[in-house]
Write a structure and sequence with these properties.
50% of the residues lie in helices and 13% in strands. The chain is an alpha/beta fold. It has a 7-stranded parallel β-sheet, with helices on both faces. Strands 14, 15, 16, 17, 18, 19 and 20 form a 7-stranded parallel β-sheet that branches. Strands 11-6-21 form a 3-stranded antiparallel β-sheet. Helix 13 (267-281) packs across helix 26.
């Protein structure tokens, strides 16, 4: 029996015993009245999970399976629980959330988007309120008072981005009453692979003031728009970098009447030219971004969704706006920045759940010190995952792909085709129209119709063409009789650089024991195989092996960046602790004016520090090219800059206090601020690195 249970639940003997104990207890508790159930002391994890399971059944009619109890135990023990798509992660998390929330310090439940935060908070509200707990939800459109109320609840649902943006805003207020957060205690992270790994390095930025160069971007665009590849510039083999040719340099120097494009005085112009060429040659409309409602909307390459308020680094985003001739948005002076990874480090306790944690176990352990518990499915997975089909060319792949869709559609089996971009989904849609195959398209251009389209995707004969946006909190049950046709057929049009993107797509078939099939159509011209195979034709025929190579490189890069950023995050926390003490008036004998001046001075000088740090990052790789140790140089420079920052704060506060006293300026009057996300380039855009390095090498030209 013990071996049978181990195979069935994939759990240790102790976990199996706990599951058995919880089941016996909830059977007894189920006999109690509501009032008696509410009065049961929840003094340990076992009792808490048992009580919550009974309440879930009584309030929502949701009977937790043993595997969901297993998942709740993993979360309550501070682990990442891997639960496959469709296994009920949302309700499985609730017993653990209750366990943490009843300790009275607040729990943040991080979801993938605002819709899921709102849906899950409302869906599970009855359970929490039955147990005497308050539940709140943070949404992007909320006012400060609404946010403060939500964070004061025992359980708060929201996206990691909104929680992070609120922290950045809190760190700029002039009065304690304007802060919305209380001290961080526990984070329960849904879709942990996405939030803690895929998006963990994306900086959240708060900005203010005006420091834009849109007019320069527009002037440069009028010149570079006529530049041609191979004549005015070259692109490297992986389409990552652009370099001006002699003809391009001459054309630029003539157009802008500058004798030497590489002189120190022309650095800003040179960087703007590089950004413009990058925007025209390397970033594609309907792949990397959309033009929607007169603005540039960034597309998340992992999910295929529009990412609200995400921008590329200042010059590059302005270049894209100039390229597409849309009105430019303010970038502003960066006042503060925080990555999700560093946000997570502020919590005393972290746990999470996802469908694809096991592929990134090493990273969860290395970066977050979190173990992964693989939770078995409630019913055996009977989905058939067919081997990849590898083609020589993209055109060959797409021809066979359309034929496959047409043939499967004729059987009545519903089909979900996962594509990598808006452009690809619409190109495939056009090919299917020619073949008279009825279908729906779901991508970032029509994401407001996602729920309606997904709801129909399991019906007999349905064909749905989608970017990677599906699989993150949306589901569609199989229609009547569909199981007899073999369940849903999932087809991927290419493999991505990480299995955590492909596996959720596979998981759209064969949910909760349903039949289904999955297959990926791969071309040797696909980005993954071109970028990571090193030109090895035999290796290109093994996409799984290439994918593992890509994952290894990505992990190494993230670990590298984590090592570099650790020092800066320590400095940020030091400054913020100092600022918070001043904000709360803990510095003895300080006047109100001195308090306000001190806060404003710290904010201004921290912004200058961040700008200087960006310059250091922009040129750091040239130290390595010159034979130096970039890490040692970076650490030394950062510590020196921080020492200078602290000294300058001490010097500036008295000077600014005297000036404010004489002039009567009110330092509490601050200009408007706004938040946005930028791309994952903590060491500066490639154009900045290239420009600064080239200036140093060619200064004597």
């Amino acid at each position: 029996m013990r071996n049978f249970l181990r195979r069935l639940f994939g759990a240790s003997d102790s976990t199996q015993a706990q599951i058995h104990q919880i089941n016996r207890r909830r059977e007894d508790l189920g006999k109690l009245s509501d009032d008696a159930l509410k009065a049961v002391p929840r003094s340990d994890v076992i009792e808490t999970i048992a009580v919550t399971a009974v309440v879930a059944a009584r309030v929502l009619g949701l009977v937790l399976f043993d595997v969901q109890i297993h998942g709740a135990l993993a979360l309550a023990n501070g682990r990442i629980a891997e639960m496959k798509t469709g296994e009920g992660k949302t309700v499985a998390a609730v017993p653990a959330i209750v366990w943490y929330a009843q300790q009275g310090r607040g729990v943040h439940v991080m979801t993938a988007n605002d819709y899921l935060a709102r849906r899950d908070a409302e869906w599970m509200r009855g359970i929490y309120e039955f147990l005497g707990l308050k539940v709140g939800c943070v949404q992007q459109t909320m006012l400060p008072d609404e946010r403060r109320f939500a964070y004061a609840c025992d359980v708060t649902y929201g996206t990691a981005n909104e929680i992070g943006f609120d922290l950045l805003r809190d760190q700029l207020v002039m009065y304690p009453k304007d802060q919305v957060h209380r001290p961080f205690a526990v984070a329960v992270v849904d879709e942990a692979d996405s939030i803690l790994i895929d998006e963990a390095r994306i900086p959240l930025v708060i900005a203010g003031g005006q420091t834009n160069n849109e007019s320069l971007a527009s002037r440069v665009d009028r010149v570079t728009r006529s530049f041609r590849p191979g004549i005015h510039f070259t692109v490297d083999e992986y389409a990552r970098n652009i370099a001006l040719t002699d003809a391009g340099i001459a054309a630029a120097e003539h157009a802008f009447a500058c004798r030497n494009l590489f002189s120190e005085s022309n650095l800003t112009l040179f960087t703007a030219i590089q950004d413009s060429l990058h925007a025209h040659a390397l970033l594609r409309r309907d792949v990397d971004y959309l033009v929607k409602n007169g603005a540039i909307e960034s597309i998340d390459e992992l999910k295929g969704r529009i990412v609200l308020d995400r921008r590329w680094p200042a010059g590059l985003h302005s270049a894209i706006e100039a390229k597409e001739r849309v009105r430019s948005k303010e970038q502003g002076r960066i006042l503060g920045s925080l990555t999700v990874q560093n946000l997570i480090s502020l919590y005393q306790k972290v746990c999470g759940m996802t469908g694809t944690a096991a592929t990134q176990t090493e990273e969860f352990q290395t970066i977050y010190k979190l173990d992964v518990a693989v939770i078995p499915t409630n019913r055996p997975v009977i989905r058939v995952d067919h081997p990849d089909v590898v083609f020589e060319t993209k055109s060959d792949k797409e021809e066979d792909l359309v034929a496959e869709i047409r043939e499967v559609h004729q059987t009545g089996q519903p089909i979900l085709v996962g594509t990598a971009s808006v452009e690809e989904s619409e190109r495939l849609s056009g090919m299917l129209r020619i073949e008279n195959v009825p279908h729906h398209v779901l991508n970032a251009r029509n994401d407001e119709h996602e729920a309606a389209i997904v709801a129909q995707a399991g019906r007999c004969g349905a064909v749905t063409i989608s970017t990677n946006m599906t699989g993150r909190g949306t589901g569609s049950a199989l229609g009547e009789g569909v199981a007899e046709f073999g369940g849903r057929c999932v087809i991927g049009t290419k493999q991505h650089e990480n299995r955590s993107i492909d596996n959720p797509l596979r998981g759209r078939a064969g949910r909760t024991g349903d039949p289904g099939t999955s297959r990926f159509f791969v071309s040797m011209e696909d980005p993954l195989l071109v970028k990571y195979s090193g030109g090895d034709r035999e290796l290109q025929r093994e996409p799984d092996r290439v994918q593992r190579i890509a994952e290894g490189q990505q992990l190494a890069i993230r670990q590298f960046l984590h090592k570099y950023e650790t020092f800066v995050e320590g400095h940020r926390q030091t400054i913020q602790h100092r600022r918070q003490d001043i904000l709360e008036g803990k510095k003895a004998c300080a006047s109100e004016l001195e308090r306000l001046v001190s806060l404003a001075t710290i904010d201004d000088l921290w912004s200058e520090y961040l700008a200087t740090l960006a310059d250091v990052r922009a040129g750091i790789h040239w130290i390595e090219l010159g034979g130096g140790d970039p890490f040692l140089s970076y650490v030394t420079t950062v510590h020196q800059l921080f020492d200078e920052l602290q000294d300058k704060i001490e010097e500036e506060i008295p000077k600014r206090l005297e000036a404010a006293t004489l002039s009567g300026i009110d330092p509490s009057q601050r200009g408007a601020t706004w938040t946005y996300m930028t791309t994952d380039q903590p060491f500066g855009s490639w154009s900045e690195r290239f420009a600064r390095g080239l200036v140093r090498r060619l200064r004597g030209r």
